[in-house]
Amino acid sequence: MDITKYTIDLALKPTTFDAWHVCFAGTAAILAGALILTLFALAMSLTRPKGKKTDESEVKIVEKIVQAEPIVKIVEKIVEVPVERIVEVEKIVERLVQTPAPAPVILKEASADAALQLLYLLQNDARFIDFIKEDMSSHSDEDVGMVARVIHEGCNKVLNDHFSFSHICKENEGDRITLLEGFDAAKVRVTGNIVGKPPFTGTIIHKGWQITDVRLPSTVQGYNASVIAPAEVEL
């Protein structure tokens, strides 16, 4: 067998240049370039001195990481109040501002002389204090009733002699009456289920009393009003 016809001549050059040759050449060039860049980067990282500042690309990466953190936003909720409610509140505030403060209560000191004089008259004409201070547990109901009649007559005489009375309500007890707004609370005391504002309609339980005239006797200078009943000594 003649092997000379299978011998390869390395000095020969290709006479054709097809697509496969182009792909092989391009791939070899890309791989060679990548290898060179890799070796260059490795050499730069080994030769970089310690403490070198981070370049701009690294700073940008850090900025992107910081900006990626979630941001909490505070949202203020606006509540709409109806106009009618605002007007109502303004009227209440205006009424509170315009309402004058209540006048201070001035206490008037009562004179004890007139009260002591009345007690003197009741004791003098009706033995009123003797009856009130007496221990009634040792007396029978008949005895108390007889004494009470005498005390009643004497007290009635004192009141008629020194005071004039009239009923506050002209109607009879049990009649229905209507109290209008602004009624005198000092003269009429409202009881029961009090709801809302006047007018009130109710039943007269008591007609009430008021004094229209006072006729207490005059006293001389040096009169000791605290002596209601002087002690009595029989000789």
Which short descriptors sum up this protein?
235 residues; mainly alpha; 6 helices; 4 strands; 43% helix; 8% strand
Describe, in plain words, how this protein is organized in 3D.
This protein is mostly helical. Among the domains are: about 70 residues, no CATH class; about 40 residues, no CATH class. The protein has 6 helices and 4 strands. The strands form 2 sheets. The protein has a two-stranded antiparallel ribbon with strand order 1-4. It is rod-shaped and about 165 Å long. The termini are far apart. The mean pLDDT is about 80.
Helix content: 40-55%
Distance between the termini: 195 Å
| Helix/sheet category | mainly alpha
- The tally of helices reads 6
How much beta, percentage-wise? 5-15%
Strand and helix layout:
Elements (H helix, E strand, L loop, with lengths): L18 H29 L8 H12 L15 H16 L13 H15 L1 H6 L7 H22 E5 L8 E4 L20 E4 L5 E6 L21
Antiparallel strand pairs: 1-4, 2-3
Helix pairs in contact: 4-6
